[in-house]
């Protein structure tokens, strides 16, 4: 049984072993580092084998909270928000996007529990103190040292500042520092008047943020007087006659993985104190879905390769979801041998799949040991038969179809594949996973059926589940108007866009050179977007966060110029800080 960072034993791990943990974070359209703590803690917990499976979702990236539950393979899921405060995101945005409030069609046929945010846990207080001691070079924390816990805060939402205040109060009680203050970027008391709040000669700043993003790298140091603008700074730095130390954000601390387990255990046991919960302890949901349940034998077969060695084949596994099995059958019905090399990535494997009538003949070839190939977006999937008769699969960029293994980087873990495809050929961040910018030069060999599905979903999150739903006629499509109407904060203004403005957004975002998904959503019921759909491999069932961002920009800055270049998301003007939100920021 794991032990939490605060020294307490966490709840029974037995229910967790049959549960999928979903870690939800903020993410970014501009900075790959925003999601790093989410992935790092997920990797740690996969290695520990505490949960049946560990999934991640991001507000600004894929898979979104809207999509992640449809990829869950177990009956039970626990969602833990990797956010700092019990505020706007954790109480409103994330539950709404997960569909936990009953506003949308449930995505799993089982139980989903929603935990309290990580940042409000008492154990984070220990992390703050340890971080302060480490950066100041004194783990025992001597005299004449002040501690400033710096959080985002906003005067528009009282909960945003509450976590920092609570941690500061606890540390004050411990009498470890001469002075302890909670300071904020966006409300009083401000980190901009840092030295006014301390009489000590030395002050250590600990940023109460999840990620090493722009706030931590630039905004806090600039406001505290450590750096001019977004320039470099030394640690420690003299500020108004005081020596100021600056620690890393708490969210990147490895012990946050323990806090995530504790939050999940609380939710599983129903022992969450409820003081900062967004929802009732559990939300039972029963609805048909393309996902389907694992049977009990599959449930007991732990996913030892879920994110471990891709080529591990001690027990070749088949996909455990109906959508995964459908996908594998479709792969096996693919073109034989090198014929697939001529297949266009635009070949739509949809309900009207032109290859479907040939499935029986192709399956016969497969059983006789034939090699099959398919393209999926920019991926090439190849299947072949091993000497023991089992099927094995390989994944690579379709542009590398003729490359020898020696010419490619072999990726043996899903996390290596994930990190590789988060950036393009030039190493630039790819916030839109379905952008036609997948890097070349790698391959993943020796995949069994289950791991192939996981690998494809690592490159193109949630696409198999949506594609399978489309094939069986159950894809849930949400049009622009319905998506816009549920938005809050800085995105509520997108509801003001009329159809012609949305047409312009679609012309810049949902087109061949910007996205490989096939848009299925329209402006509204009975009012289509006046832009032809691209012939993408997999469907897009609702406007993504990128389109909402471009829509928001068009409200603020005017409609996009028709025929403009595909959007460069790295240059987008959006402020991830959400400073203009009327609800605040609880990252
Ligand atoms: S909304 Fe448009 S850009 Fe976003 S995933 Fe769908 S098709 Fe692609």
TrEMBL record:
CDD domains, per the entry: CbiX_SirB_N
Protein name: Cobalamin (Vitamin B12) biosynthesis CbiX protein
Gene Ontology biological-process annotations: cobalamin biosynthetic process
SUPFAM superfamilies named in the record: Chelatase (SSF53800)
Pfam families found in the cross-reference section: CbiX, DR2241, Fer4_23
InterPro entries: CbiX-like (IPR002762), DR2241_Fer4 (IPR041346), DR2241_middle (IPR041181), Sirohydro_Cobaltochel/CbiX (IPR050963)
Gene Ontology molecular function: lyase activity; metal ion binding
Database matches in PANTHER family: SIROHYDROCHLORIN FERROCHELATASE, CHLOROPLASTIC
């Amino acid at each position: 049984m794991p032990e939490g960072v605060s020294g307490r034993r966490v709840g029974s791990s037995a229910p967790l072993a049959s549960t999928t943990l979903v870690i939800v974070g903020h993410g970014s359209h501009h900075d790959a580092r925003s999601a790093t703590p989410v992935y790092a803690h997920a990797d740690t917990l996969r290695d520990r084998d505490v949960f049946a499976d560990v999934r991640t979702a991001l507000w600004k990236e894929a898979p979104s909270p809207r999509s992640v539950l449809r990829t869950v393979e177990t009956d039970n899921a626990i969602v833990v928000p990797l956010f700092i405060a019990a505020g706007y995101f954790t109480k409103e945005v994330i539950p709404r996007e997960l569909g936990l409030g009953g506003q949308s069609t449930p995505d799993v046929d089982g139980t989903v529990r929603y935990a309290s945010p990580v940042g409000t846990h008492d154990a984070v207080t220990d992390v703050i103190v340890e971080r302060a001691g480490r950066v100041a070079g004194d783990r025992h924390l001597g005299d004449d040292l002040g501690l400033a816990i710096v959080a985002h805060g906003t005067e528009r939402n009282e909960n945003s500042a509450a976590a920092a205040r609570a941690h500061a109060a606890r540390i004050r009680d411990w009498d470890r520092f001469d002075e302890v203050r909670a300071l904020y970027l966006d409300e009083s008391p401000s980190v901009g008047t840092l030295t006014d709040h301390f009489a000590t000669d030395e002050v250590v700043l600990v940023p109460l943020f999840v990620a090493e993003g722009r706030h931590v790298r630039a905004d806090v140091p600039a406001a505290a007087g450590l750096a001019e603008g977004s320039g470099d700074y030394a640690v420690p730095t003299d500020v108004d006659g005081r020596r100021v130390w600056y620690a890393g954000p708490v969210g990147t601390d490895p012990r946050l993985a323990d806090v995530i387990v504790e939050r999940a255990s609380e939710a599983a046991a129903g022992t969450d104190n409820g003081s900062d919960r967004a929802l009732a302890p559990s939300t039972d949901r029963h609805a048909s879905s393309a996902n389907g349940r694992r049977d009990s034998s599959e449930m007991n077969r732990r996913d030892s390769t879920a994110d471990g060695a891709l080529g591990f084949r001690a027990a070749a596994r088949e996909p455990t979801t109906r959508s995964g099995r459908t996908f594998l059958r479709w792969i096996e019905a693919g073109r034989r041998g090198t014929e697939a090399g001529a297949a266009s990535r635009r070949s739509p494997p949809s309900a009207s799949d032109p290859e479907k009538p040939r499935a029986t003949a192709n399956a016969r070839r497969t059983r006789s040991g034939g090699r099959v190939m398919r393209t999926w977006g920019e991926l090439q999937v190849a299947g072949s038969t091993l000497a023991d008769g089992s099927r094995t699969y390989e994944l690579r960029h379709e542009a590398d179809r003729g490359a020898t293994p020696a010419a490619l980087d072999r990726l043996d873990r899903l996390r290596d594949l994930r990190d590789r495809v988060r950036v393009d050929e030039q190493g630039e961040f790819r916030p839109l996973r379905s952008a036609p910018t997948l890097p070349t030069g790698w391959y993943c060999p020796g995949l069994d059926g289950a791991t192939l599905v996981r690998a494809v979903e690592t490159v193109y999150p949630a696409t198999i589940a949506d594609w399978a739903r489309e094939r069986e006629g159950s894809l849930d499509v949400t049009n622009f108007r319905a998506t816009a109407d549920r938005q809050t904060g800085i995105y509520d203004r997108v509801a003001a866009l009329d159809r012609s403005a949305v047409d312009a957004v679609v012309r810049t975002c949902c087109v061949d050179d910007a996205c490989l998904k096939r848009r299925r959503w329209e402006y509204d019921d009975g009012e289509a977007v006046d832009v032809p759909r691209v012939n993408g491999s997999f469907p897009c069932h609702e406007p993504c966060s990128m389109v909402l961002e471009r829509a928001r920009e068009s409200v603020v800055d005017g409609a996009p110029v028709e025929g403009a270049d595909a959007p460069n998301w790295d240059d987008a003007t959006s402020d991830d800080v959400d400073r203009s939100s009327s609800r605040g920021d609880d990252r």
